Structure formats: structure tokens, C-alpha cells
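[SOLVED] Need 3D model of a two-part complex

Original post:
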Amino acid sequence: MTQTVPGRHRAAAIARKVAGHVVRGLVMIWAVATVSFVIIREIPGNPVLGQYESLIQKGMSPEQAERATAVLYGFLPTGSLWQQYVGYLGSLLHFDLGRSLSTPGVEVTTLIGHAARWTVLPVLAGTLLSFLLGVTMGVYAAIKRSGRLGDALALSGSLLHGVPIYVIGLLLTAIFATLWPIMPSGGPVDVEFVPGLNPGYLGSLVHHAVLPVVTYTLASYGGWILAMKSNVVAVLGDDFILAAELRGLRRGIVFRYLARNAILPLFTILALSIGMLFGGSIFIEQIFNYPGLGLLLVNSISSRDYALMGGTFLVITVGIVVANIVADLLYTVIDPRVRSGGAA
Amino acid sequence: MTVIVNPAGPPAAASPETTRATLRRNFWRGVWRVLRRKPSRMAGVVIVALFALMGVAGPLLYPAQLPRDDNALYAPPSLAHPFGTDFEGTDVLALVITGARYVLLTGLATAVITVALGTVIGLIAGFHRGRWDTVLMRLTDMNLAIPGLPLLLVLSTVWKFESPLEMGLVLGVLGWGGIARAVRSQTLSLRERGFIEAARGLGLPTRHIVGRELLPSMAPYIAMNMLIAVTGAVYAQVGLFFLGVLPFESNNWGVMLNLAVFNGGALTTPAALPYLMAPLIAILLLTLGIVLIVDAMDEIFNPRLREE
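Solution:
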């Protein structure tokens, strides 16, 4: 089917699909930016206007106060709602999210940039590990589905899929940091090491990352194992597997047929999984005192740093939306069935 | 339902009323059979029933103001206090039991709203197709893509979620996307089937087709999603209290987690550990019970999954 479609035609179809995704993503981001603008403005006491008025009381001229507040929040406190909104969107286009109030003068984007790596790396590590674990166990659960082992595996998947991520994290910490203290209970790294590429520092980093990464892994493992199991069960019933077995192909080759066809649909889980882990990072970073985006968001709320709050919320959401689009696109590129469907 | 295979079969000339009654009886017999075959499923039903009882009767078992004991702060587990006591000497088990109502009420409210919104939107989109479908599905995509938890955190600055019902309302409004998608695709596939076409050919009103023909065939699926929505609601609201972004109006599991971790230091010293473990075990058990029931329902309504 795909062979009959000329290459250029296919490229155009993919390009159209990419464009569609990008446009939809931009609309999403715009919607989230609007939500975040409305919320910051609707916070009781309107912090933006409050800041402006307190600056005027301190003796600033209205123009000065307006400029200072605009620097803090990324938009002007005065003027019509529409002008404020346009100003806000304008500063977003310049990646200007305002300045933090709790760490005075530091740009929100700088803080977010520092925090992002503490979120993104563990989340990616957790996604990768849970994928490997879930897919392997999913195949087992499918092949042994009438036995006790298969039952137990599938149940472990459903249970871990339903249990909140913070329950997993708290249980692991209670066991491995409080009862049997072989793991550090919090923080990203031991303070005694000099940051840099030395073995002590790196070892401490890894040691501190073990529990958070294991928590992420367990939290998204359930989705992978359940999806993989049902895909393998579906593919097992297909004629081409029967044909391959009848032709006497080696089990390894049959398994490769099976795996290739069962793994492809999992790319839809990738998007879900990344979104879930990003959301869950808020809890994990709080539990393990990990200075990532989630901790930044919670701290900004408790310190009433609304500019930082809006910016972090926006960046987390955009991260999830972009991850979803990338997962969708990967799926399109990898799965020939979707690809030819788009070209038709 | 297609599940019921009654070897005797209802008498061919039975009136519609008796057929319906027989079907229903056979259905419940089938449910019972599936439940009995694996004790784990019975366990699921028992666990969820226990939690329901806890939510209804829990606060009645104890005085409104739980007794405090200043001589036994963070007491270790004992016969009198199976999970020890908290920072002011209150029995932890009593806290878990009385705290269940808030958690379960939110779960129930969320589940009802999620399912109602999701079903209605999915049905309209799938049944009418065309422009309605496009608009509603764009909304659904949006609902699915906006991550609920960060939004809830930010919303907590403007909204205090004072009652469990209010919390359930917000969680429900944020979470209907998945069900709407699934109901739509089910509707799209069902509306092409013979029995729906026949109903339309007979000139039956839309109300009848949707209410009597479409919904019953989707009911099991919707019921399963309702249960899953409860776990989602527990996740979100206990989490919000755990993070400490909501004011502690009343006792519930999330408040316990927060106090155990951030005041009791349960993650560094073992003293407050039982105080932390009690709500954790409650959440684990509740999830386990729901998962076991959903698992059993899956098998009741999906005969293909059964493998004798």
C-alpha cells in the first residue's frame, strides 16, 4: 500500500500532518496562557494592581510604578483588560515571563531554566525504564494470561496504574530512607561534594536520583504493561502469526513479528505517560525535596510569588503539550498504517 | 446482555416483562458466578463495601472532637491504638476512619459529574456528528491536553474548595475528556449496527434510541469508568491536601499525609511513621478494591477475555 504512494506525495502528507499538529499545539498554548493570565488577574486582591499601588505609595510616579510592575509580571497593571492581555501575550512572544518576587530581581525564565533539568532528566529516565520493564512484563502477561503469573502481572499493572504516584513515593521513602536507611531521604545531592565532573559528586547525584526515578518508573509501568498485554493478545490472534508458526519459523522470528506489531500502538501511551509523570513530578519533588519545576510551582504558590507561579504553570503545561505532539508525530512517522491513512 | 447463556432459556412465548425479569436474574447469577470463581474479586467487593460503610458510618462511631492524650504523642502501635497516635495523641485509626467520608464524598461527586458530562458530550458528538462533533471534540482535546494537577494547584490560589462537593465539581469538570472520547467512539460504532438501524427504521424517537438502545449497551463500560474516576479523584484531592495548598478545614487522609511528612518528619525519623502509613494503606486498599472490581466487571461484560 505504502509502496504505491509516491515519495513526494507522502512527504507532503506528513508535512501537512506536522503543520496541523503545530497549529493545534499553538492554539493550546494560547489557551493555557489565557487561563494563566485570567487567574493571576483574578487572584483575590489582584497582586498586579496591589504591587502598582504600593509602589505609588512609596513615592514613585505612575509611569515608573507602571514600568516596574510590568517588569515584575510581564504585563501592565493599568489600562483596559484588553490592553493588559495584549501586553501579556506580547511579552510571552519575547519569552519574557516577568521577574520573581521571592528571589528579587531574578528573571522567571532563569529560575525555570535551572529547575527544568531536575524535572526533565528524572522523568525521561523513569519513562525509559518503565517502558522497558512494562513491555517485557506485558509480553509475559499476555503469553501466560491464563496462569497465575499472568494474572498477578496484570493485576500489578492495574494497581500501580491506579495508585497515586505520591503513595508509591512515600512508601518507598518510608521503607528505604526511614526504616532501612540505605537511601538519602531528600535533596538532589550531598552538600559535601564540589559540583563538577568528579566521581564523588556524580555518585551522590545518582544515589539521590534512585528513589525518585524508581517512583516514576513504577508509576507509569502500569500503563505500559496493560497496553502491551492487550496488544500482544490481539496480535497473537492474527493470521500472520499463525502462518509464521505453520511455516515453521523459529520462535525468535515469530517473536520479532509479534513485538514489532504490538509495540507500535504504544506510542500513544508515551504521550499519556510523559504527561502523567510531569504532573506527578510536583509530588515527587516535594517528597524528595528535588529542586525541579514542580517544587518551584508549589513554592511560588506558598510564597505568593504570582509571576513565578504563572510562568511555571505555563512552562509545565507547554512541556506536556509539546511532548504530546512529539509522541503523535513519532507515531505518524513510525507506523506505516497511520502514514498511508493520512496520504489517502 | 450477551453474557447470559441460560441453557434452559426463557419460554419462547413469554411476555416482554418476564423476559426482562429472567434476563435480569440470569445477569445477577452470572455476576455471582464470576465473582465466586476468583476469591480476589470477592475481596474487591468486600473492600469497597467496607470503605463505603466507613464513609457513611465512620463519623458516627466517634465523637465529633476526637479524644486527645497529651501523654502519648506519636505513641507506637499498640492494641489500644493499632496505628499509634498523632502529634496530639489522637488515635490514628480513628482519624483514618473519620477522614474517609470527605475523601469518598469527593470521589463520588467527581465520578458522577465526570461520567454525566462525558457521556452526554460523547453521545451528542457521536450521534449527531457533523459540526457538533467537530466543536465538541476540539473541546475534548483541550480538556485532555491541559494537565489537571498544575491547573488545580494554580486554581487553589483563587478557590478554596471548601466542601467535598465543590471539590468534586471542579475535579469532574476537569476530567470528563477521556470518557467523552470513548463514549463517542462507541456511539459511532453502535449507531451503524443492525439493532439501532432497525429502531431508526421503525421510526422510534431519538430519545428512545439513545435511552433504551444505546445507553444500556454502554452501561457496563460507563460504570467501569465511574469507578476509575473515583481513584482519579482520590489521587487529586488527597494530593492537594498533601501538598498543603488547601486550608485544612476538616480531617482527611491528605491532611494526615501532610502533617506526618512535613510536621512529623516521617521521612527521616520512625516516630511518625505509623501516622504516615495508615492513610497510605487506606489509599492502597481502596485502589486495590476498585481495581479488583473493575477487573471482574471487565470479564463479566467482555466474554472474550474469559479463557477457561
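Edit: Residues 1-14 of chain B have pLDDT under 50 and may be disordered.
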